[in-house]
Amino acid sequence: MFALRCTQKLQRRIGHPLSAVVGAADTQLGDWYANLLVTKPAHLILCVSERTLLPIVVEARNPSMLRARMVEAVRQVLGSLGVPAASVERECAAMDRLYFAKTESKSILGVLNEFIFQLKYSLAHRPELSLLEQSLWLAQTPVAHTFPDRATQELFAIHGASYALQ
Predict the structure, then answer these.
(1) Tell me, what DSSP letter sits at residue 64?
(2) Beta bridge partners of 131
(3) In this structure, what DSSP letter does residue 53 have?
(4) pLDDT greater than 90 at residue 164
(5) 35 - beta bridge partners?
(6) Please, which residues have CB within 8 angstroms of residue 33's CB and are 6 or more apart in sequence?
(7) What percent of the chain stands above pLDDT 90?
(8) Which tens digits make up the pLDDT trace of 29-57?
(9) 32-37 vs 44-49, strand pairing mode
(10) Contact 78, 91 (CB under 8 A)
(11) Which residue from 75, 86, 80, 85 is spatially nearest to 29, judged by alpha carbons?
(12) What is the pLDDT of residue 83?
């Protein structure tokens, strides 16, 4: 179980009510913060992990499929970062339930906004990159005194792992 802490713009788009009960996340990556990015040809949702600031980018279409899209994106990004398959599957299994909550951290919102700015640039200048490649590219961006990809590898105790963005 985890919370998706949506910006007001995204909350209006998906239309799910915010949960009054907010519990601790069962996932290693914690809760996620998310914002809507309106682009052409597809609208996107950028999500950032509360604990490591790991970004994932998913399509915004069909909000009922958002959790499934997030789980698949997390699976792909963690696998690309060298996280062992068993750890990836545990994390994805812990993402079995999603509830919507309001944002709490202004610093994470700042990171989310910085990633939105970077993503807009990348989409305009490197449209051939897949959403996975966009996510991995963003994960290499230094923010808040850390690199999200490295912080995630440390969280899952992956040392010396490397990956290359084509």
Answers:
(1) G
(2) none
(3) -
(4) no
(5) 46
(6) 5, 6, 7, 47, 48, 50, 103, 105, 108, 109, 112
(7) 75
(8) 999 999 999 998 889 999 999 999 999 99
(9) antiparallel
(10) yes
(11) 75
(12) 96
What radius of gyration, in Å, describes the C-alpha atoms of the chain?
15
Query: Distances in Å between the alpha carbon of 46 and those of 37, 85, 148?
Result: 7, 24, 14
- Does pTM surpass 0.85? yes
Q: DSSP letter for 160, please.
A: S
The pLDDT of residue 21: 64
**20 residue type, one letter:** A
Dist. CA 120–CA 89, nearest whole Å = 31
Strand order in the sheet with 44-49: 55-59, 44-49, 32-37, 2-6, 98-102
Is residue 22 pLDDT above 80, yes or no?
no
Q: What is the pLDDT of residue 18?
A: 79
Instruction: Give CA–CA dist 143/31, Å, rounded.
Output: 18
Residue by residue, DSSP assigns 21-48 as: -----SSTT--EEEEEE--SS--EEEEE
Cis peptide upstream of residue 41 (ω within 30 degrees of 0): yes
For the four alpha carbons of 123, 126, 131 and 135, in that order, the dihedral sign comes to negative
Residue with more model confidence, 145 or 32? 32
